[in-house]
């Protein structure tokens, strides 16, 4: 008789990585929501221009992004912390899977689009500086993808640990 195989459980650092990714990204949104222009040149285009002009709509959008990223961090914490076990499992896991899917899809679409711009296959409506294109292609957009993958790992870890696998 074969020994029972146990399902793989992602390591704890994956779940904690989702927490760190969320709160670090929230810190950037806080910076920009409060009107800072630090790092705006790494975004380029109309976002940089609107940010430097302290456009109220962009400041509000950054405030909304800040709240969503903080909620993403709390969700990741709920998946990894003991107090999260007191929350209803189905909604918690559903939010984890939904959040990770949105982040991964958004990240893949953004990275793919920017890679096509960098390869001169696509021409954006508004040109980006080489600096902004590099930063967005190598940091800002992949951050969504990495965060999504980490959140998926945290969700899988939570699910498997709760089931005792």
TrEMBL record:
Pfam families to which the protein is assigned, alphabetical: DUF3995
Transmembrane stretches, start-end: 12-33, 57-80, 92-117, 137-156
Record has Membrane as a keyword: yes
Domain of life: Bacteria
UniProt KW Transmembrane keyword: yes
InterPro entries: DUF3995
Keywords: Membrane, Transmembrane, Transmembrane helix
Name by which UniProt lists this protein: DUF3995 domain-containing protein
Organism classification: Bacteria, Bacillati, Actinomycetota, Actinomycetes, Micrococcales
């Amino acid at each position: 008789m074969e020994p029972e195989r146990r399902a793989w459980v992602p390591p704890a650092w994956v779940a904690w990585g989702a927490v760190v990714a969320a709160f670090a990204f929230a810190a950037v949104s806080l910076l920009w929501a409060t009107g800072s222009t630090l790092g705006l040149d790494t975004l380029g285009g109309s976002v940089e221009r609107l940010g430097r002009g302290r456009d109220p709509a962009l400041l509000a959008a950054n405030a909304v992004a800040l709240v969503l990223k903080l909620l993403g961090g709390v969700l990741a914490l709920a998946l990894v912390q003991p107090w999260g076990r007191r929350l209803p499992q189905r909604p918690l896991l559903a939010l984890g899977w939904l959040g990770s899917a949105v982040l991964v899809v958004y990240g893949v679409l953004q990275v793919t689009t920017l890679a096509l711009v960098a390869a001169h296959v696509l021409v954006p409506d508004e040109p980006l500086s080489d600096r902004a294109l590099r930063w967005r292609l190598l940091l800002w957009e992949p951050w969504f993808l990495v965060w999504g993958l980490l959140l998926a790992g945290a969700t899988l870890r939570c699910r498997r640990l709760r089931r005792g696998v």
